[in-house]
Amino acid sequence: xxxxxxxxxxxxxxxxxxxxxxxxxxxxxxxxxxxxxxxxxxxxxxxxxxxxxxxxxxxxxxxxxxxxxxxxxxxxxxxxxx
Length: 82
Known about the structure:
By secondary structure, the chain is an alpha+beta fold. It has one helix spanning 4-18; strands at residues 29-31, 40-44, 47-54, 59-69, 72-75, 78-80. It has a single domain (4-80), classed as YaeB-like fold (2-Layer Sandwich).
């Protein structure tokens, strides 16, 4: 479970980073190799936001939010492999 401040930080960064040009690669945004989670990843400190973009409808869909603990990616407390 994320703390209130962490949720606020993630929401602010998602708004700032993905409002315009969500499919452009930046230092904190990258396109992922094909996987069953999402096509894109946004890095916000230790957190990872996985999202897909519908360019026709101009929509960003957040698929999952996880965090890094060492080399492990945890989503809902479960280790996840991309």
